[in-house]
Amino acid sequence: MKTLIKTLLGLKLTIQSSIAGAARRYDTRTLIIIGLAATAFAISSFIADKISERKSSSKSDALLKIRFSSPAPANDIIIVDVDERSLALLSKTKGNWPWPRDTLADGIQKISDLGARAILFNVLMSDFDKHNPNADAAMEMTAGLIRPIAFPLIRLNPQNDADSKFKVANLNGVEWINKDESTTIALIHPAFPTMMDRLGVADQRPDKDGIVRTYPLNWNEPNYKLPSIVKATMMSAGLEVKSLPDDLTLNWRNKKGAYQRLSFADVLSMDEHAPEALALKNAFVVLGVSAPGIGQIKPTAVKSIEDDNEILATALDDAVNGTFFRTAPSWLLLIVTISLIWGIIFLGILRIAPLKINRIFVFLQAGLAGITLITVSYTTILIDLSGPMSFALLVFAGVKIIRMMSDNSSRGKPGYRKLDIQSGSTEMILVGFRRNIIGYKKYVAWEKQCHSLVGMRNIIRIDDLFGGTSFLGKTFEEYTALIILAESDQQKSEIIAVFSDAPENTLTINQTKLKQGLDINGNEFQSIIAGAVTKNAAAIFSEDSFKAA
């Protein structure tokens, strides 16, 4: 068992050191491959989103929840609510829900008398009340007399269209693509004829996960478009709706409170001079039910539960005041993503100093996050850069891993580099300098030149002499040494010539004779290196060197 474990560990180290060696030898090509792979993945994701028509996701939900601000609910959009209070106050005279239709007709009349600009009537009455025909007659008359009001219809499954006898041509506000008078539609509509000329689809269109993020102003069918109840409300008020998009990305008022709500029972008995009554003048009113058990609730991008009236009020506010989100086009986000990918790859190829590239990346990510949060908080433009940021993070991690493996291989770190068992070299050249004086690019160039002269296996870099936690770590953190093994006097001369362009008094070169067949992994070689590096570092950081620096 011990032999097996030792064999497996040896295999692991062999594989790891081989990968690290390849990363060191082919670092530029490896980084380019990472960039190409990330670009291909970004493009494929873009195409997949286009094919699936994916419009939103939980990422934008998180942005809306953590944003700094949101639009305030418009003062001229008010919810008149059939809530628990209304049910309790009217139960003695009107009975349990559903009330006789004349009760709702009285509410519509009262809201109209108080000067409301338009009413979104979010209560579907698809059948006549056989027990209260007079109440139905009152509702039918009220609906016919009060014009700025929209009534709901429910769109049923299109698979049932062929079995329906109701013709689309009988609906007002239909936008035909290819008009066909015989086209039928499966729906549930109000029972009262006086409501039929101001209908709007009341269905919501949640995303596949059941969460409401957008609102369809137009209910798009293959050959025609039906207006939503929000659009029908705007049309009844005489507002221009042609310039509005088919779908609105809702700009929730989650940071500035909810829309003003008035209990239906209070509106019925409201004095016309009351402050609440004055608020109804020229207001858009959403009249609906929110009482538990009879009101509809749905999850939204910012709340786990929201009643239907608040959603409709938000959609109406966005449509009337133009506060809905304009989302950045996906092709623009793709360009940003690809630009970030290759920007990071380029920094890796340039071998920017690790600390500097870390700072650039953090600054870049913070800037992208700031743009996203500021736009989603204070504008109607939703630029969700979390996708490009994720790609940038993955590519940056790949660059850092390649750089880490390459550097550890250069340092001869156990597990990342298998040193030759025996050296054929006769001379060890030790070049020591301070990185902050020489510069990162310069010493990387020197190292590459030496690679070409003696090969990668004959160079060891030391740039962590004492480590960051050592007492001397801070002093020696900029010290770097290149240990180069030369196999001939000619190589020795060529190596020393590499450093001829160094500024005066900025590095120290020491030479040490080695015996043939020296075990590179043995204690003797390590002792030689330890002594030579210690002397070299002492010379670099002597008092005269500090003065020269």
Strand tally is 22
Query: How much helix is in the residues?
Result: 40-55%
Count every helix, treating DSSP H or I runs of 4 or more residues as helices.
Answer: 19
Terminal residue distance? 57 Å
Uncertain runs: none
Q: What is the domain total for the residues?
A: 3
* Rounded average pLDDT: 87
Strand percentage, roughly? 15-25%
State the major sheet.
Answer: 7 strands, mixed
Estimated radius of gyration: 37 Å
Structural class: alpha/beta
Overall geometric form: elongated
Write up this protein.
By secondary structure, this protein is α/β, with parallel strands linked by helices. It has three domains: 22-65 and 327-408, no CATH class; 72-321, no CATH class; 419-548, Alpha-Beta Plaits. The chain contains 19 helices and 22 strands. The strands form seven sheets. Strands 1, 2, 3, 5, 6, 11 and 12 form a seven-stranded mixed β-sheet that branches. A four-stranded antiparallel β-sheet has the order 19-20-18-21, with helices on both faces. The chain has a three-stranded antiparallel β-sheet with strand order 4-9-8. It is elongated. It starts with a helix and ends with a helix. The relative contact order is 0.12. The mean pLDDT is 87.
Which key features would you list for this structure?
549 residues, Alpha-Beta Plaits, 3 domains, four-stranded antiparallel β-sheet, 19 helices, 22 strands
Task: Summarize, please.
This protein is α/β, with parallel strands linked by helices.
